[in-house]
Amino acid sequence: MTQVTQTELFPGVRLTAVHTEKFKSCMLGVRLLAPMAAETASLNALVPQVLRRGTARHPDMEALSAALDDLYGGSIEPLVRKKGETQCVGFTGSFLDDAYAPGGEPLLERAAGLMGDLLLRPALEGGTFRPDYVEGEKQNLLSAIRAQINDKRQYAQTRLLEEMCAGEPFGIDRLGSEERAGAITGAALWTQYQALLRDAWIELYYCGSAPLERVKSALSAALDGLPVSDSRIRPARPAEPAAPSASRLAEEALDVTQGKLALGFRTGSAAWDGDYPAMALFNAVYGGTTTSKLFMNVRERLSLCYYASSGLMKYKGILMVSSGVEFDKFQAARDEILAQLRACQEGNFDDQELEGARRSVVSTLMTTLDAQSRLEDYWLGQAAAGLTESPEELARRVEAVTRAQVEAAARKAVLDTVYFLKGKEA
Amino acid sequence: MVKQQYPRLGERVYHARLENGLHIYVDQKPGFQKSYAFFATNYGGMDLRFKLDGAWQDTPAGVAHFLEHKMFDTEDGNALQDLAANGASPNAFTSSAITGYYFESTRRFEENLRILLSFVSVPWFTQESVDKEQGIIGQEIQMIEDDPEWRVFMSLLEGLYERHPIRVSVAGSRASIAQITADTLYACHRAFYCPANMVLCVAGDVDPEQVCRIAREVLPHGSGQAIERSCGADEPETAARPLQTMEMEVSTPIFQLGFKADPAPMGEERLRRQLMGELGLEALLGTSSPLYARLYGAGLINSSFGYGYEAYPGCAFLAAGGESRDPEAVRDAVLAEAGRLAREGIDGALWQRLKKAAYGSRVRGLNSFEFICVQLAQSHFAGVDYLRFPEVFDGIEKSDVEDCLRRWMAPERAALAVVRPAGAGGRP
């Protein structure tokens, strides 16, 4: 049986613990939550990367890797995610569950201790971050930002959101910008790190077989030294502005053989809105599955593209359509994508399409319970939005959505921005 | 069915061989919401030449993958839609060695299993639908050709191999798939999609006997003929082309550095080689190795760096790659370190830790139903029981891995493939 407990360990420091015995591993998370802002995004994104280079006790990567190897190949990965307009930075770790450790040696306390060290007791030089670590990770961050262009599908989606949400915190990339990242100094990074430890809302996470009390004491011990603060800022929900009266078009030319088309819609319905389950179901009917309108028509019937799908930015109230098209089919693909939206709005979908979509949404929610990393990400999103609804509870609400509610949700989707990535010679 | 317990892993697998020759494995996983079924044929992108009805056939590159796309078509419509309508998430993939069809679902498992077994075993192609698919796959080929990660990996394989079909793209080219007709597909289906050449692997909270019953009902009773195939003349031990470079729209150079290993025999030795290859890579350039720390510290590699050992019929290789501002410097450092390890051996304490880590990581991999089923299927085709990896691990000594390092990770077996930013010219 899976059991979820949410407790406040210290003021502004919360723990979500999922008790289950079905996995071979346990998962730990330490996440600092801060408002997404242009000034701090790159700094915050850099903090876990620099911390991951070494602790006072394990001052370099070789020593850290050795410690992880001793925990039977445990992993601790830096985490930088955007949930709504909250930037989440920190670490997730995956370790062999005690039940499978040869000889039954307890691993949880040592794993938690290592996470705590990474967050609170970094390798220092002259009372601040080691300059070589800062410089190395700064270069890695810059490469990561520049490398976003390598995956054209993802790049088109990022560029769409940047254009569509210019001026909103949501338009800021999770890694910030090349310009801001390039300007980071060791002193600024150290100051921001101290600010995060003092002011950031902290979400801890555990999923595994250990009883709650043992998890609480392992994490409390690991976080000994964390500043006690009553000024931790609870994450806020983003604004959901309406689309402009006429949609915008942004185009860009790169050396590619296939075009990428991305369309952004405002829905006015995010995870905390009462009609969110209907919105999720509408998205599935429209483009969320392989039985959806977009897949069946744009790809299969008309062969206008290799892929066409839609997805929700759950914590912002945005629907995004993403498609790979040949350059000369841009117009036809865009028109068909919009025609299929009208079909949803007018209720032109049969019961089979609706029920197929419902099964898909419910199944995706229920299988979240079977995958530790998806479950961790789900609960982090909920925490950032101040929600406590579990995947099972949300699934139950999706089961109850009516056809009329789906049509109503579809009518709320208004086109805001179209982004088209075309070839240079086109 | 025969029940096999793996107490060290907490796994329980039921196995049966049906009258028609199909092997079935069911890993029973209580407490999970989903069930996963994987139905695979021992036929992939590299199986271009084979003997059917006594005569050797040469087929164009991309047939296995084309077949994978078209198998979802049924006389009544499309199986993808039938499965999706049940809330199942179906999909398929073609690798160089196998083609696998699978679904994951949280309800109506038995109905979904029937659909899966039926559409994979009953071909239904028309020339019209084949012509249309040529357009769709043509676009897919274009899309992967824009993917620098894919391009650099293919380039590595071309660098390592003179003629082994592993170097042929699984999807083929626009020109090669233009030669595919409905008849090609029917012939290859008949050759490779017979029960004796396939395996069914299931993971989930399901009744194993029921899985067998459904397979007996749905699948053909005949076993089909054993398929002889050829991957060409023997390969030399050395790499064909030590350096291949190209330019693409990327921000930082990306690279793959490979070593040509000895082809692995069938049976438990295959799994042993796999584990030794991985341990060798860990010792040489893994995240805990001294070399990794040095390269990372010098900014020559970053967290995109990854590595692995892969074995296919007739070939096996080790590959490591990622982004680097200077791939040649990475290669030189790896070769130098391989030389040092060949002379001095692996540090004893490092060896103990690496073995511990590799073991734990493999156990954690068993969280994934997909991973379990794909491993069970591939291991079945290789003639080995995958879940015996703890015992195989126990038998590997430091000197075994040092021997692999000495033999495989030699300069003449190495090839480097690099994709540089367009317009950047030569070496930075």
Order of helices and strands of chain A: EEEHHEEHEEHHHHEHEEHHEEHHHHHE
Assign the CATH class of the largest domain in chain A: Alpha Beta
Structural class of chain B: alpha+beta
How many structural domains can be distinguished in the coordinates of chain A?
Answer: 2
User: In percent, how helical is the residue content of chain B?
Assistant: 40-55%
Helical segment count of chain A: 15
Question: Any idea how many domains of chain B?
Answer: 2
Instruction: Note poorly predicted spans of chain B.
Output: none
Mean pLDDT of chain A: 94
What CATH architecture label of the largest domain in chain A applies?
Answer: 2-Layer Sandwich
Strand content of chain A: 15-25%
Major sheet characteristics of chain B: 7 strands, mixed
How large a portion of the residues of chain B is in β-strands, by DSSP E?
15-25%
**CATH topology tier name of the largest domain in chain A:** Cytochrome Bc1 Complex, Chain A, domain 1
The percent range for helix content of chain A is 40-55%
Oligomer: heterodimer
What is the fourth-level CATH superfamily of the largest domain in chain B?
A: Metalloenzyme, LuxS/M16 peptidase-like
How many individual β-strands of chain A?
A: 13
How many runs of DSSP E, i.e. beta strands of chain B?
Answer: 17
Largest interface: A-B, 68 and 68 residues
Structural notes for this entry:
With 426 residues, chain A is α+β, with helices and mostly antiparallel strands. Chain A has two domains: 3-222, Metalloenzyme, LuxS/M16 peptidase-like (Cytochrome Bc1 Complex, Chain A, domain 1, 2-Layer Sandwich); 248-423, 2-Layer Sandwich (Cytochrome Bc1 Complex, Chain A, domain 1), CATH 3.30.830. Helices cover 42% and strands 23% of the residues of chain A. Chain A contains 15 helices and 13 strands. In chain A, the strands form three sheets. Chain A has a six-stranded mixed sheet with strand order 1-2-8-3-5-4, sandwiched between helices. In chain A, helix 9 crosses helix 14 (391-399) and helix 9 packs across helix 15. Chain B starts with a strand and ends in a 7-residue tail after the last strand. In chain B, helix 3 runs parallel beside helix 8 and helix 11 (327-344) packs across helix 15 (398-408). Chain B has 428 residues and is an alpha+beta fold. The radius of gyration of chain B is 22 Å and the shape is globular. Helices cover 42% and strands 23% of the residues of chain B. Chain B has two domains: 2-230, Metalloenzyme, LuxS/M16 peptidase-like (Cytochrome Bc1 Complex, Chain A, domain 1, 2-Layer Sandwich), CATH 3.30.830; 243-421, Cytochrome Bc1 Complex, Chain A, domain 1 (2-Layer Sandwich). In chain B, a hairpin with a 2-residue loop joins strand 7 and strand 8. The model of chain B has no long low-confidence stretch (mean pLDDT 94). Classes of the chains: A alpha+beta (426), B alpha+beta (428). At the A-B interface, helix 2, strand 5, helix 4 and helix 12 of A face helix 2, helix 4, helix 10 and helix 12 of B.
